[in-house]
């Protein structure tokens, strides 16, 4: 791993005046394709306002757009950091490094950027300093607001943002207004609700971009609302009251020539988070999970036996094991099965945990936010003493400053008790798993619980999955599915999650034909290399991932039949591979084919409407 090269040069400017040169307030990516720059400009109502712009391949990506924060009108310390500002210093540095994640979509992640830190002050006598920190990577650009510790301005009260994104004309967005929503392609104007990030954009010149956020662990959720044609502005989910030093979340703008590069480069979000804070990570084990739906001892033991046969790593006890999850009287320290889930109430959880452990399997427990908020500090050491491996946090509050801080503290606390986590419902990642890799996955996605169609599934890799891992709750052999079995088999390759919940609504008895689910039996959940072979949002996608010497390929189409021809040039040259192909046979079943291939061959997928194909390439 290379080391930080350090500071290349520093430019200091006096408060009384700024002797700017064209490059003093501009940075470019290491490959020179992306630039970020800032100036102070005068407007009718915003004199001396900071304005930034981003270019990609010398073309506008984000046209000149205002920056700034506004004070909370109801606060005791009103202020505005969007006008009447003076630039007092600017500092530049570069970094060339890489790091190895505990788990991920690749075994090593590059972290190369050029950084600019601009310090500003507002109005004579107001005191305090705000910094705008920007980094230009080859993959995209990121910037944030930072308030260094300053005894003249210890308390910050922020009520709004004036962070604008002025887009080139005719830009189209893949829009949804919440993390578990469906997506619609629409022009950037007249949105009745703000958009959830990541927000993927297609510019009229063919460039693809994505606006998202990173390190949103102590800052309110940010959405993007329209402020005019082709103009977006940040919308905070509530005010902030905080002491300095304090930083906003990063705003990230990825840029690419093809949409698949946005997903391949999503590690940029992790780069913008602090390094791993857990010294001993040996207990953090990704794997496949199946939910125990009977909440009974017999059902649990049957599931453990199925898990042994199908190489499933975890069994999961979902809502109802300690009573109705919404009732305040339900006590998550005791087993008290909700009679609506199992009228007999015959769940011996200690025995189920013991039996699972005897077979080499681990247990995850679901706990609703109502119990977490009352009992968290009791539950964590208790579950550790029970031999539980992890918790799924359910229906947690998201958005506000208070609940954002609470939730990320709850992740840190779980790590102290060696508990892995899955956070469900509206929580969407911003890279915190780099710092606390016990957070293996989260929902924040419209998955199989809501039975989305194939077109929706082809959009997700280019939108939600740019943010990071998502628990999609995969189903198989369920009558409500509108997509084929080949489509379902391919999804866990395309959709990254270190904890892959398989057969979500199923029981072992629902899978009499074991060959149909053979592909999932030894499917890895973390990877050493990831490539998006081809795809267009709303049409189709093909993703290849490597674990050791073997490659796994998942390909799906929308609701239309499609033939896709894929080169196998990602394979190691000169090596032979055994290709095992699982596809729809046209009768509702799965057909398996086997042959030998090399990097010179091609893979053809003849996909049915709403269909898919799953492939293993084992190096001989």
TrEMBL record:
Top-rank lineage group of the source organism: Bacteria
Cofactor(s) for this UniProt protein: Ca(2+)
Record Pfam families: GH97_C (PF14509), GH97_N (PF14508), Glyco_hydro_97 (PF10566)
Domain spans labelled Glycosyl-hydrolase 97 N-terminal: 27-275
Positions of the Glycosyl-hydrolase 97 C-terminal oligomerisation domain: 526-618
Glycosyl-hydrolase 97 catalytic domain segment(s): 295-445
The name this protein goes by in its record: Alpha-glucosidase
Organism: Larkinella knui
